[in-house]
Design brief:
heterodimer, A: alpha+beta, three-stranded antiparallel β-sheet, 8 helices, 52% helix, B: 394 residues, mainly alpha
Amino acid sequence: MSYPNQTQEIFELLSRGNFICENSPVRNERKLFNRCEEEHKELYTFFEHIGYYLEQGNGYYYFSKKLQNNQIEDKLEAILDYIDLVEFMLQYSGTFGVGFRTTVSELSEAVKANVVLKDRLDRIKGSYKSLTLHQQCAKVLERFRKSGYMALEDEHEERYLVLSSYDYIQTFLEAIEVPNFESA
Amino acid sequence: MITTISKLLSAMHRDRKVFETLFEKRHTSVAFHEIARDIGEDRLNFLVNTDLIVQNDEHIEINERVLTFFEDFLETNSDVEIGDIDELLENLVHHINLHQNVGSYELKERYLSRIQRVLKKVPNIILKNLSLLQLHIGLTYKTQTAYENKITELKHYKTKLEKLMGIEQKVEKLLHDEDDFFKTIYSHETVMLVLRLKGRMRELRVSLIELQKQVIEYINKSLQNQAFFEHMIRLKELKSTLELKERTNIYDLVEVENTPISLNKREFFSTFLETDYIYGEDFEEIVEKIKLNKSLPTREVKKAAAVEDSFFESNDDEASMIDTDALHEQFIVQDKDLFTFVQDREFSAEKSFEQRIEIYCQMALMYEDLYYFDNHYDLRDDYEYLMIYAKESA
């Protein structure tokens, strides 16, 4: 059985918890995405042997592993954090979603002009008031980037792009069933 | 009242500056005295009297009909107006009927020219409206931030677009219905216009369908996004009242196995650092920094020269050595004389008679002091030998 040349590259990227996204600003990653798409079956079987599952999303690929019991709590915590983060970004712009672009300055300007946003920002975990507003905003976007849901498209302008992997978070949050408020 | 083109043009030409100013400021109000200051009250009053300019209290503006003409001609009107086309089409049918029914050549020519005008106008109007719609739809979707307005506006443009598509079909139908007329018409120019119109309509149809798809997609996306936003607000409320875990299915969802590994924070490894510190968000950064600042000593490992092959070839020389000390120890605890002892002793390697004699001599020389030399000789195989015994005291 033969495997694509980039198997190692794909493994190195994904095993570090990254996503391979269709709309990545890095050309090579887009190439790898195509590779994954073409040879998904082969790659899946290959990585399955070493305990990694090559999962396919809407425009992205990632690795998943069997969850340990204590990891379930961690995942829950992480998801709860994302509720705050995503809600904050949606308050900032209704169009927040895959393909959305923003700069740190734009975000901090918007926060300056909107008390609700300011309040939300201060309540986000790890967002300390001792930081400057700009730093606080940068931190929020950086968190999305570190978890692989955003990419720093332009370092100079500090412009971030929401990657297709964000779809995972959105789908997850959408799937949470909210009880009817009338019956509450 | 002005009734001829030349009078109209000359009146407008004389005060063209005023028209230009008023046209530029058509969306704001301009005070009477502002203009009167420049050209004098008399001339302005004249313009008002001729109906070219309309005065409301203190404010003046260009007559609506003139303004429309300017906007149409300069193509600066940014509103989408579709109703006109309907009327134009009705006129077209009307003129075609008239053209067919009149006998006089002159009258036929007059109707024909009207028909041609409509044929020229229709595609231009549709095209203009189409590009305007495209612009508005794109702008609304991208810039309108309030959800309610965005969706209302997009829906508004969608109805306009559908109307425009209706018009397009009407034109199509008309061309089909009047096919006989256009086929038998003698005027080459008209035939060309009809052909061009048909081609244009084909192009427009494609663009219209494309745009319709787009606007529907935009509306769906906006609706979806709005639903998601409302959903998030509820989640946030549940989270802040700490009811999220109790009242939703979040636990079931978390247990689903397709979790990206970036969400499984905890990996087990042993370290001397405090665990809180490692799972902190800045840990990665800190490690990166330290890695940059501290250059770890790299040890160069020199390679040894290649081992020669001959090293591996075995060319051992075997030689057996006699442990004389051990032999001596054995000799002194027994009773035989040295020669008989050496001859009878079994060695690990086979020894000849001569070799045994050699050993006998070696022993005698080495341990001379410890042996008792008897002056009595014995004989074996033509060799005469001295009887040597271990000293009793030794």
